Amino acid sequence: MDLREPVIGEPTIPHLVARLTHDARDVARAEIALAKAKAGAAAARYKKAAVLFAAAGVLALAALITLLVGLVLTLMTLIGPGLATLAVVGVVLLAALVLALAGRSRLAAGPSA
Description:
mainly alpha
């Protein structure tokens, strides 16, 4: 029996190398798909948090505008509109704080949030 002849039924070395390269390509494609899926999940989580932070910013800007208008009215009359302005500003800033804390908790909670 010649040792250089392959035994019938066993794959040859070129066949094994071809199968190895094919499997390596499949593994590389699977790893790329996994990385894309992870990146997509992270982007969705950050998008939700960004929306909450944007809403908090809009409400904070509205509070600033309300404060300035109230300050003008207060200086014009030096009477009651100042207390009303403080009440409105307090409520709007409280809502902005709640939205900012919700956004921060979504970032800290992880990908399942």
